[in-house]
Design goal:
This protein is an alpha+beta fold and 308 residues long. It has 15 helices and nine strands. The strands form four sheets. Strands 3-6-7 form a three-stranded antiparallel β-sheet. A two-stranded antiparallel sheet has the order 1-2. It has a two-stranded antiparallel sheet with strand order 4-5. Strand 6 and strand 7 form a beta hairpin. Helix 3 crosses helix 4, helix 7 runs parallel beside helix 11 and helix 13 runs parallel beside helix 15. It is globular. About 2% of the residues have low confidence.
Length: 308
Amino acid sequence: MAKTNTAVQTATENKPATTVKSLFQRDDVMAKFNEILGKKSTGFVTSVLQVTSQNSLLAKAEPNTILQAAMVAATLDLPINNNLGFAYIIPYNEKVKGENGQPDTWRTVAQFQMGAKGFVQLALRSGQFKTISYSAIYDGQLVEQNPLTGFVFDFTVKPVGDPIGYAAFFSLINGFEKTLYMSVDELKKHGTSYSQTFKKGYGQWKDNFDAMCKKTVIKLLLSKFAPLSIEMQSSVKMDQGIIRNAETEDISYTDAEPLQIESKETERVMHLIEDCTTIAELENYRTLVTNDTIEGIFNQKYRELGGE
């Protein structure tokens, strides 16, 4: 993921802007968007300002948190447009603990959120996916539920009523494929576990339950089983975070707990490598060698299979 300019963060701290519009019109801010997006920068900034102006709560958010969320979306090259579903900037009320006996106060900040389509877009860009999709599942469509051998669905059954669950699927160019299915009850438990606002009966899980379910199944499927590019790892890390400084990855998760994927990704790739029985099979995972730990396991397995 591209790094944002330190000058942008420092300037916004030392010289606060009174409005989001005036902040985004500054020369140093526009220069950074131009560096990241080129000719697309003007349209991107316009869309961010439109989204902000159309949401009364977001318009009250600290301008720098909107800027940093927008920088994350720009570096991932995902549009901020609520109708497209790739990425969002969401207002959130954050409690500020009072000091020296003073009462707690509240402030509105912006939270960066990935959409289901955003995760799919980043996956496709990696060049390793043959197919990737997600869907709501209705009564009669779930034929077989077996977490070990996979799930079988019959999409010839016409959707009736509300979904009973949601599923996501991908297949890689090397032949590996995986499906994740979660019932509505499982997704509600997940939302309750990871979102403070959902516990209290409001927020994205309450207002956009269908979209959050689709995003959750594709996000969990990719983070647990798919090869993660640097962009995809960054998207998982930044998702549902209040971005204080995108360059230093200074992020707080006031509403949701972050999904830790780096150690899980290393462990997952190590298991894939250890299960290989031929050098040809092992070579399929060479692109997943992203750190010294994985490289050591890969080289050891290569030698065990007769490679030099």
